[in-house]
Amino acid sequence: AMLTASNPDNNDEFGASVAVHGSVIAIGAPSEDAADSSDTAIAADSGAVYLFRHDGSTWLEEKYLKGPTPAEYDNFGAAVSLSNGLVAVAAPSRDNSVPDHGAVYIYSNTGADWTQTCLLFPAINSVTAQDKLMFGSQVSLHGTTLAASGYFEDNFSSENAGGVYLYEDATNCSQPGLRIEASNASGGDRFGAAISLYEDVLVVGAPWEDSNSSGIDGAQDPATSPNAGAAYFFTRGASGWSQYNFIKASNPDGNDRFGASVALSGDSLAIGAFREGSDATGTDGDQQSNDSSNSGAIYIFR
């Protein structure tokens, strides 16, 4: 099947984000321009999300979502995630007393409809009081637990080091969220450019991280391989969330951007490095060739 919006228009970017859970698909169109759900006024790039459900024979559009107060350039729908009757919708360019601070909207399926449950964003403090935090750049929902990143976040003096916020119950609108950062946070790493949450495990990509170690839990310094990239493995225990592993490619190289994409399910983890340059084919070929610039690779960990 090919799915399209019920109100298509130029440059809406329908399909810029997508999430699937069971028979439901959420599709973001972050440059959609309607100012409200009636689609009769204009708010440029305010964004929208479309929910489709499979009825056993075909896909039907079930809901057209807009933020409650759509504003120009909010980019509602830039990231989406679905889990067990909940959908998280990010609007990373939403203003919250500072420009482009970002927010995540939580909607729940009541059976007959989808209704907004919560609006989440970090409190304004010494870390988050910045332009272009862009909270919600990436979102991942598992059960009622939400991870949302602001990978342009400045970590004090480290510009664009990035941060991720964890909400144990995304339907509890009053919780502040737990902020986590890389164990070797550094300017420009963009920790949170990719995130994947599964049960009590969170994997976070930082594709601009610069260390030159390889494999699991190698040295996190010195920063001698610019933009090689890294991923960070966090687990949730009785005392909360903590970093468990620091993950690098088996063949790290500058500008490979390892950690630009991550996907976690069960005991399998996939990490993308879209600028890796070997000309190997298939599985476990020659990782050191570097004869095919930006060909890309995926690394599987179990």
Alpha carbon gap, first and last residue: 33 Å
pLDDT < 50 runs, ≥5 residues: none
If you average the pLDDT, what whole number results?
93
Shape: globular
Oligomerization state: single chain
SSE string, helices as H and strands as E: EEEEEEEEEEEEEEEEEEE
Task: Give the strand tally.
Answer: 19
Tell me the strand order in the biggest sheet.
Answer: 1-2-3-4
Helicity, as a percent range: under 10%
Fraction in beta strands: 35-45%
For the largest beta-sheet, the strand count, sense and barrel status come to: 4 strands, antiparallel
> Which structural class best describes the helix and strand composition?
mainly beta
So how many helices? 0
Tell me the radius of gyration: 19 Å
Please give a structural write-up.
By secondary structure, this protein is an all-beta fold. Helix content is 0%, strand content 38%. It has no helices and 19 strands. The protein has strands at residues 17-21, 24-29, 48-54, 59-65, 79-83, 86-91, 103-109, 114-120, 138-142, 145-150, 163-167, 178-180, 194-198, 201-206, 230-237, 240-247, 258-265, 268-273, 297-301. A 4-stranded antiparallel β-sheet has the order 1-2-3-4, with no helix packed on it. The protein has a 4-stranded antiparallel β-sheet with strand order 5-6-7-8, with no helix packed on it. A hairpin with a 2-residue loop joins β5 and β6 (86-91). The mean pLDDT is 93.
